[in-house]
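Researcher: Re-running this chain for the archive, since the previous output was lost when a drive failed. Same request as before.
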Amino acid sequence: MWYLIVFLISMVPIVEIRGAIPVAVANDLDLFWSYVICIVGNMLPVPIIYLFARKVLVWGSNKKFIGKFFRFCLEKGEKGGKKLEAKAGKGMFVALMLFVGIPIPGTGAWTGTLAASILDLGFKKSVIAVMCGVLIAGTIMGIGSILVANGINVMFAPA
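Model: Regenerated structure tokens:
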């Protein structure tokens, strides 16, 4: 049951693998299988986002009720993408990988893939860069979660 929960958490925008791995560690799940499941869950929406998100956002940007939110998402993706492109130049693959790999909210697979789609970086190159970033973020979160869990266990262990 918990494996399904961490799988679903890893698919949620903003939270993604950054939230799923700590939940797996907190529930004493096998870290290797949790890592694999979280990566699959985090990567599952990536092709869909790359291929369709931009089209849906453009389509909805002039609609009455959803237009404001869709324009916000488009502007955020364009701004993030252009900022990334300005800093990276020809090193966009590495920049995208590191952007996704930094485990802070707003820099995950969803945002990175949307930015890659808006910048027309190419499907294969974008998916591979995002995958590498997800692997990095998962590793950082796994190590961090284990260190925090061990620290808590040491602090509250009976003397």
